[in-house]
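Researcher: Let's do a round of design. I'm pasting the structure tokens now; please hold your answer until I've finished.
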């Protein structure tokens, strides 16, 4: 299996984790990602340390408490494929969070270096920017959970729904050079869910010089590391694809560069 694919555990470990990516395990500097699965009534508590965190409720309801704030009974969807925006909680570095599952619960823990610049806050579904990108069979649907217009120190967090038979992260684009204003350097993780679950998605990760050039078969619950290069995604016919992106780098802005060979696709008349 490719070193870019991270496979989940069958059962949660003692702190509820079924998938964990750290900067050390990924071999990079900024992005951390984890998925927690809790049974109804279970509680976990953690310190954030030097890292800011965005807790994204993938499915289920929860009580969440930080050092100064608390929110009771948050959550709306039970599955990401309800395709409604999630509840999320932003927690700064040098804080803590406690999650109590009010139902069966899955939570994504997105993290990156913090600078103690912001307070903990709830991000409601109504605060999530919803948009459609692309056209035809490159149309996909976006939930901007923590975009650069909203306060955070490093984190950028977004959900993408790719209908069956469609492509996303397309035309192929990259963001691996600190060359602003044209391009920003951002590490990125993709966390995939597939409907029906026996399906798969296809993701290619490649650089201009092809020193990295992999085509990945990604299954339900797996994550992909994108340290550099272009990274388009395809959802095969019959299988809808969801992914949660976490990005972070030296500057908190998303400026991407399209693969010149394929940029013409977005220049189609009337698009």
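Researcher: That's everything. Go ahead.
Model: Designed sequence:
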């Amino acid at each position: 299996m490719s070193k870019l694919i991270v496979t989940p555990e069958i059962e949660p470990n003692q702190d509820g984790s079924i998938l964990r990516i750290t900067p050390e395990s990924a071999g990079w500097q900024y992005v951390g990602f984890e998925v927690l699965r809790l049974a109804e009534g279970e509680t976990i508590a953690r310190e954030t340390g030097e890292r800011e965190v965005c807790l994204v409720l993938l499915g289920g309801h929860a009580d969440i408490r930080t050092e100064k704030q608390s929110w009771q009974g948050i959550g709306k969807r039970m599955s990401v494929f309800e395709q409604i925006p999630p509840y999320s909680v932003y927690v700064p570095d040098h804080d803590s969070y406690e999650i109590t599952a009010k139902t069966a619960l899955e939570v994504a823990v997105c993290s990156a270096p913090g600078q103690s610049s912001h307070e903990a806050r709830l991000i409601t579904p109504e605060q999530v920017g919803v948009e459609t990108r692309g056209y035809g069979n490159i149309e996909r649907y976006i939930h901007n959970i923590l975009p650069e217009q909203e306060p955070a120190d490093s984190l950028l967090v977004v959900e993408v729904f790719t209908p069956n038979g469609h492509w996303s992260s397309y035309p192929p684009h990259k963001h691996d050079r600190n060359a602003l204003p044209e391009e920003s350097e951002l590490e990125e993780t993709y966390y995939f869910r597939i409907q029906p679950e026996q399906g798969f998605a296809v993701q290619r990760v490649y650089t201009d010089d092809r020193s990295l050039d992999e085509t990945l078969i990604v299954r339900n619950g797996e994550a992909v590391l994108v340290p550099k290069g272009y990274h388009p995604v395809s959802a095969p016919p019959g299988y809808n694809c969801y992914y949660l992106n976490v990005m972070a780098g030296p500057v908190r802005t998303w400026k991407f560069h399209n693969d010149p060979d394929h940029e013409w696709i977005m220049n189609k008349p009337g698009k």
